[in-house]
Amino acid sequence: MRAALVFSGLNDEQHRAVEQVRGPVVVLAGAGSGKTTTITRRIANQVLTGAFVPSELLAVTFTRKAAGELRARLEQLGVPRVVAGTFHAAAQRQIGYFANERRQVVSNKLSLLGPIARALPDAYRQRALGDLASEIEWAKNRRLTPETYLDGLEMHTPPLPAELMQPAFAQYEADKERAEAIDHEDQLELAIRVFEASDEAREEFRARYRAFTVDEFQDVNLLQWNLLEQWLGTSKELCAVGDDYQAIYGFTGATPDYLLQLEERLPSATVVRLERNYRSTPEILDAANRLAPTLGGRRKRLVAVNASGQKPHVRAFDSYPDEAAAIAARCRELHARGIPLRELAVLYRVNYRSPLYEEALIAEELPFEVQGGSFLERRAASQLLRRVRARPSARAAAVEEEAVRAGWLLELPDEGIGPAELARQADLARFVTLSRGFAGDVSAYLAMVEERFGAERERDAVQLLTLHAAKGLEFEAVFLPRLEERELPYWRAITREQLDEERRLFYVGVTRAKRILELSWTREGRRSSFLETVAPLPPKHAASRQPAYSRWEKRGQTRPSKQGANGTSGSRDGGLRDGSWLPDWMRPDERND
User: Fold this and answer.
1) What pLDDT digit, counting tens, does each position of 571-586 carry?
2) Bridge partners of residue 487, in order along the sequence
């Protein structure tokens, strides 16, 4: 490994970060600014200069994929044997070594939560297990126990009434203990306790690992911060890399505060801002930079390296089906111009929005891939298809019967349905709609469903994914539809912190685009106030600028209850092709509040 290779192609700020082989170093890395290159080159330089040997370095990120990429790049630079992994993987190694912890790790809480959910009062049994699991993760990431849970709620709203959620949390912990298992939050908690209780463990660990690099620092939660404190002790050998503008995981307990407070905690830190963007055109970055002053945190202005391109395209449509159809047609047009389908992405706020775009792409005969699970791989499909396959000779009407048995609701409860359950209900509704009017038996119906959605498994396919799932990715063309109040910002965003996070989520969506960015909304909703910063309306439309619930937010009043357009609760009726199959409760102005 040569120094020329380590510093090759770096800009001035990247060079400055790489040459600082001793900590503390804080890298505020804007979107598309080459932070992974900077991290790997700095680690390589730590070895090249003799500051550390590879086995003394520990690099931590938040996904196995990111950790694998980090290791691969280091090996290409001639620096093998650097330990790179997730917080959880590192914690598991530590509790295994120091505490001989060998209990099974529960990779998914749902198996333990199923019986607990079935024991809830009737009105709450349809709450998605994913929502309960997320709530327990939220609590444990804040180091709350069943005993301290109620006092720790503060402004947080659980998916169940707190007096039901607390015993459900306690039952989950008791069942997990009886099963002699631990979950991912336990891995971190147990590692912290090992180091808190044992001077020998702390000393041995700190003698082994002498310098730490933590990527995506804006996503650190209390558990991870406390573990990092145990790793470091009084050492200042930390390189923290992150972008507070992309802090979008507050619902898990993460906060950008740990990143933003590092300069105060470590006053000797070298602070580097990476603002040169190697991903997007100047026009797209102009939109991102217009948003930046509204995001709070450390001011960063992205500077374009790429050549000029077209301005972001902003459009309004009469209806959601019209919007989806236009996006699908535009995908066909861009593909005909030579852009691979996998470089076209539709990003939406919540995962139960994907069916409308799937149907539009099917109508255009374009393959697509739903990240996070194709339609036939999602939970609702596995539940329903398992039941339906047991009745191959029955008429297709059996699909609706089995959907009801699987938990499909003709009408949603007035409160408490979380995003995961909304997604499951939407998928079940889609199966039912496809079965209505189908002339064949169940076997023929299943063949039709397989043929219809088989394109999702193709490699070169339009990408459909949520804004959260898109973080860290990039595409030639990005579509951001349904930019409306109560969608983005999401209707559950109540506090100022939650609204700020919604705004950062919009920023993440904008900065995924390389050359083409298309923003849209429909007249079925109300234009998002976030668009005012990027594409203000002409003065004559000033009345449309007011957010749907700005008065409610100012006065602290209760939001209106869920009702359909005619004042009644929505139900699932209608056709599939024109999009009217979407249940009323999925409309942004009719969902439960």
Assistant:
1) 333 333 333 333 332 3
2) 490
